[in-house]
From TrEMBL:
Source organism (scientific name): Paracoccus caeni
Highest classification ranks of the organism: Bacteria, Pseudomonadati, Pseudomonadota, Alphaproteobacteria, Rhodobacterales
Any GO CC annotation of this UniProt entry: plasma membrane
Alphabetical keyword list: Membrane, Transmembrane, Transmembrane helix
GO molecular function, one term: gluconate transmembrane transporter activity
Protein name: H+/gluconate symporter
Length: 447
């Protein structure tokens, strides 16, 4: 019965979000209440699980999310992101731009703030598209989409990485190298496969593109003004590169067997992102002044508040599922005979995350919920927790589509019709989810 009630709770959440357009926070709380009461957790136990789950996930990732989002807001305000993208165009030329964009979006500036990424990258895609031929726009749109979300789910400090790693109890240092390899390879291979698809009659500009000329003119003038005042490339990348180097330092020191309080302090992800935040803050104060810096901070705090709330409530559902005893049921589901458990565990983790994403429409919420369901029984599995984390990340990539706010932003900023957005963003994220799965399986053999 616990399994049945869990399925009903998840369907309830999905139905409220999609069919009745109820806010995800409200939907997740209602689902958590139903599951706790129906599965016998009790009145007090249900509320304790909801509040406890919220607090637990906040303790793990709250500061990381807040710092990461505010860094993105400050870099956006100073034009630093735009400087990075502009330099990339000049360096590689338009023909190599799809792969450069996919690679850069997934690694050099992974998606701690996906809305900012698409806002910054879309003008580049539109302006460079004519140089790539008739399919230039969909190719660059696909490259941007797969790059953003490959970084988001695989590469530190992508938001989904932080959420999943926290739930399956994997340090960001342990995740760092494997996630970087999978994220980059997924972005590049998906871009290649999508380019092959575009060589067929798949793309039809007359029905798949829907440019807004007024928007293009406004953004063109905004881009010029921002770039003229933007910091240099070396300064622009500091708030991202420095935290990554700090985390990597701690990770590699641990691998080398060198551990002490100072190394743990320097390599701590919370401190690393705070240092990145301070660097971004100083850049903003020197480039755009006190008032605009404070405005960017306010916007970042506002956005991070919304993300933190949905993140915490997603953690609440996971806690109620754990309190209901579902972890034991899933433990039985994951158990398998010799020779099969690793593959079965990876496929089930991937499948759960993929189904949740298709239903809910949020990569981060799907990843968090799947990790909340699977996390409690990870110690029982015959596979490394980081591999399960990678499998969840891979599945959560699957099919960003119309129930995602990002989908509609992507459509508008790239000048696509709804059909065109489905044929680019939905297609490349689906390909990326499938392409990354064998990589996760391959890594499981090494760990």
């Amino acid at each position: 019965m616990v399994v049945l009630h869990t399925v009903i709770a998840i369907v309830l959440v999905i139905g409220l979000i999609i069919r009745f357009r109820v806010d995800p926070v409200i939907s997740l709380i209602l689902g958590s209440l139903y599951l706790g009461l129906a599965s016998g957790v009790g009145f007090g136990g249900t509320l304790e699980a909801i509040t406890g789950g919220f607090g637990e996930i906040m303790a793990k990732v709250g500061l990381l999310i807040g710092f990461g989002v505010v860094i993105g807001s400050l870099l956006h305000a100073t034009g630093a992101f735009r400087r990075m993208v502009s330099t990339l165009v000049n360096a590689v030329g338009p023909k190599r731009l799809p792969y450069a964009m996919a690679g850069a979006m997934s690694t050099i500036f992974p998606s701690i703030y996906v809305d900012v990424q698409v806002v910054l990258a879309s003008p580049v895609a539109r302006s460079a598209a004519p140089h790539l031929g008739k399919n230039g726009l969909p190719l660059l749109a696909g490259a941007i989409g797969t790059g953003i979300f490959s970084g988001y789910v695989f590469v530190v400090p992508g938001l989904a990485v932080i959420l999943v790693a926290g739930q399956v109890n994997v340090s960001l240092g342990t995740w760092l190298l494997g996630g970087l390899v999978i994220g980059l390879a997924t972005a590049l291979l998906t871009t290649f496969l999508f380019q092959m698809l575009l060589k067929t009659s798949y793309w039809k500009p007359e029905t798949d593109e829907e440019p807004d000329e007024a928007m293009l003119e406004i953004e063109a003038s905004d881009d010029k003004a921002s770039l003229d005042d933007a910091p240099s490339l070396g300064v622009s990348v500091l708030p991202i590169i420095v935290p990554l180097l700090m985390i990597a330092f701690g990770a590699f020191a641990k691998l080398a067997g060198v551990e002490n309080d100072f190394i743990a302090f320097i390599g701590n992800a919370n401190l690393a992102l705070f240092v990145g935040l301070m660097i971004a803050f100083l850049i903003a104060r020197s480039r755009i002044g006190v008032d605009k810096t404070n405005e960017a901070l306010s916007e970042g705090f506002h956005t991070s508040g919304e993300i933190l709330l949905i993140t915490g409530v997603g953690g609440s559902l996971g806690a109620v599922i754990e309190a209901s005893g579902m972890d034991k049921q899933l433990g039985a589901l994951f158990a398998a005979d010799a020779g099969a458990p690793i593959i079965i565990s990876i496929l089930l983790a991937w499948f759960i995350a993929a189904v949740l994403h298709i239903a809910i429409g949020s990569v981060s919420v799907a990843a968090l919920t799947a990790a909340g369901i699977i996390g409690p029984i990870v110690p029982q599995l015959a596979v490394s927790p980081v591999v399960i984390g990678f499998a969840i990340a891979s599945g959560a990539l699957f099919a960003v589509q119309v129930n995602s706010n990002f989908f509609w932003m992507f459509k508008a900023l790239l000048g696509l019709s709804t059909k065109g957005a489905l044929k680019t963003l939905t297609m490349v994220t689906s390909i990326a989810a499938v392409v990354s799965l064998p990589m996760v399986i391959a890594i499981s053999w090494l760990l």
